[in-house]
Design goal:
With about 325 residues, the chain is of the alpha+beta class. The chain folds into two domains: about 1-75 and about 150-275, 3-Layer(aba) Sandwich (Rossmann fold); about 280-310. It is about 50% helix and about 10% strand. It is built from 13 helices and six strands. The strands form two sheets. Strands 3, 4, 5 and 6 form a four-stranded antiparallel beta sheet that branches. A hairpin with a 7-residue loop joins strand 4 (about 225-235) and strand 5 (about 240-245). Helix 5 (about 105-115) crosses helix 6. The radius of gyration is 32 Å and the shape is extended.
Length: about 325
């Protein structure tokens, strides 16, 4: 009735196991030791090198990298870098990190946040204002991964892969003939996993998911026999998950409508879509062909000119060397 899939990282495997221990305490015959309120539940994973579902950004994907390079040259990204250049340089000088960019500043904030959470003393230069600004830039860095511009195509190459997998499971569960016995599918992954998924759904709040965050999909069968999907987001331990509504639908979204709205971000062939389209190089190709064609045309003209001159010479004259004089 339950299937659990985790990335192959200690922290995500441990999170899955800890959650399962709380969700499924042993009862009756499941209790093998009265002093241990726990029962073993399988957690599935794959090698990191084979992970193509839960660890984002998904690589290798040349087209995604191309889109990221284009985003780096966007007005928003360039202006954001310019506005924070002195601050980023200060962080680089204080940390000793050579290149602190909008993309990499998250690692600085993450380290300081963990130290702060464990009641460790922070360096003197890390004031509350510095932490606030680092957090803002870190959140922008997460948005950069999957948005800012071309977010639909980025979603097809990233979060849409996981969303497509979830859609298949929802459809299978709604299909009475599929004999789907699973009641719960759990994915234990990373903050970037949630951001990629929520960007594909167009429900991301532009704030990095905190620890233990959870995005829930619930499938309901209505009185008329049709199915609907409801989504919730749990990003605070002390509060109930709050509802998420996909743009273009109500919170309780009919399954068919949910599938229609998410179709644009689902890749049909991920590997093929990740390739850099040849049309991108058409201008360079045309220029190259034009240059080669021009050179070939000049060679043909030159050859014809030489042949014409040879044929136009008088047949009664030819050059004869004065061998006697040369020998003398």
């Amino acid at each position: 009735q339950i299937f659990v899939r985790s990335t192959d990282y200690d922290r995500t495997l441990m999170s899955a196991e800890a959650n399962l221990a709380g969700m499924y305490p042993p009862e009756g015959a499941q209790i093998f030791n009265p002093n241990i309120s726990w029962q073993p539940i399988p957690v599935h994973t794959v090698a990191r090198s084979d992970e193509r579902l839960l660890k984002f950004p998904l690589t290798p994907c040349p087209r995604y990298e191309q889109l990221q390079n284009e985003t780096r040259h966007s007005a928003l990204y360039v202006n954001k870098t310019r506005e924070n250049w002195q601050f980023l340089q200060m962080v680089a000088n204080e940390t000793g990190i050579r290149d602190v960019s909008l993309e990499g500043v998250w690692s600085v904030y993450d380290t300081l946040f963990c130290e702060q959470a464990h009641k460790m003393d922070l360096p003197e230069w890390v004031t509350p204002d510095v932490m606030t600004r680092l957090k803002q830039l870190k959140d922008f860095g997460f948005e950069f991964l999957f948005g800012i511009q071309d977010w639909v195509e980025k979603a097809r190459l990233q979060g849409g892969v996981l969303l497509g997998h979830i859609r298949k499971n929802l459809t299978k569960a709604a299909d009475g003939s599929a004999h789907q016995n699973l009641k719960l599918l759990v994915y234990s992954a990373h903050d970037t996993t949630l951001v990629a998924l929520q960007m594909a759904l167009d429900v991301y709040n532009k704030i990095q998911p905190p620890y233990a965050s959870c995005h829930l999909f619930e499938l309901y069968q209505e009185d008329d026999g049709n199915y609907s999907v409801e989504m919730f987001y749990r990003n605070e331990s002390g509060k109930e998950p709050f509802p998420l509504t996909i743009p273009g639908c109500q919170h309780s979204c009919p399954l068919q409508r949910f599938l229609e709205l998410t179709d644009p971000v689902i890749p049909q062939d991920w590997e093929q879509e990740c390739q850099v389209a040849t049309i991108v190089h058409d201008t360079e190709l045309f220029v190259g062909l034009a240059v080669c064609g021009s050179i070939l045309l000049l060679l043909i003209i030159l050859l014809l000119t030489v042949l014409f001159r040879i044929q136009s010479q008088h047949p009664g004259y030819r050059h004869v060397s004065n061998e006697g004089e040369e020998q003398a």
